[in-house]
Amino acid sequence: MFGRLAGVAMPAGDEGAQIHPDVAPAQGDIILTKRGVSAFAGSDLDVVLRAGGIEHLVLTGIATSGVVLSTLRQAADLDLARTVLADGCLDNDPEVRRVLAEKVFPVQADVTTVADWAAATTAAL
């Protein structure tokens, strides 16, 4: 999927390597560099989550059949709780996204919408 980017190094100062201001990390946030399809591959994500006592992932993404699926499967192997926000996922093939959200993801995660998750999270506070 990302084969055409293999070996391509983007200089740290390059505009394309910058974090967009709308999602800029706050003071003290941890920044990890994703190096594989799964968010866990080649990163310290598992260590950071465990050190922070985080046991539940909420997944969204623009590559449902790649990043979201791979990260979900690895999170399951690591015994982390999982929620997928179906309408927060996108794929090049809408039918693939639909099948994953409706048939594959529910086997390994709670699947909900952004609005329902936000309402439940707000109610829990």
Salient structural properties:
single chain, 125 residues, Rossmann fold, 38% helix
Main beta-sheet strand count, sense and barrel state? 3 strands, parallel
Named CATH topology: Rossmann fold
Helix content: 25-40%
| N/C terminus separation | 39 Å
Envelope shape: globular
How many domains comprise the coordinates? 1
Strand order of the largest sheet: 1-2-3
CATH superfamily: Isochorismatase-like
Radius of gyration over C-alpha positions, nearest whole angstrom: 16 Å
Strand content: 5-15%
Q: Work out the number of β strands.
A: 3
CATH architecture: 3-Layer(aba) Sandwich
What is the averaged pLDDT score? 89
Helical region count? 4
CATH C-level class is Alpha Beta
GO molecular function: hydrolase activity
Domain Isochorismatase-like: 5-116
InterPro entries: Isochorismatase-like_dom, Isochorismatase-like_hydrls, Isochorismatase-like_sf
Pfam families: Isochorismatase
Q: Care to describe what's here?
A:
GO terms for molecular function: hydrolase activity. It holds the Pfam family Isochorismatase. This is Isochorismatase-like domain-containing protein. There is one protein chain. The N and C termini lie far apart (39 Å). The protein has 125 residues and is an alpha/beta fold. Helix 2 (64-77) packs parallel to helix 3. The chain has one domain: Isochorismatase-like (Rossmann fold), CATH 3.40.50. The mean pLDDT is 89. The protein has helices at 45-51, 64-77, 94-108, 114-124; strands spanning 56-61, 81-89, 110-112.
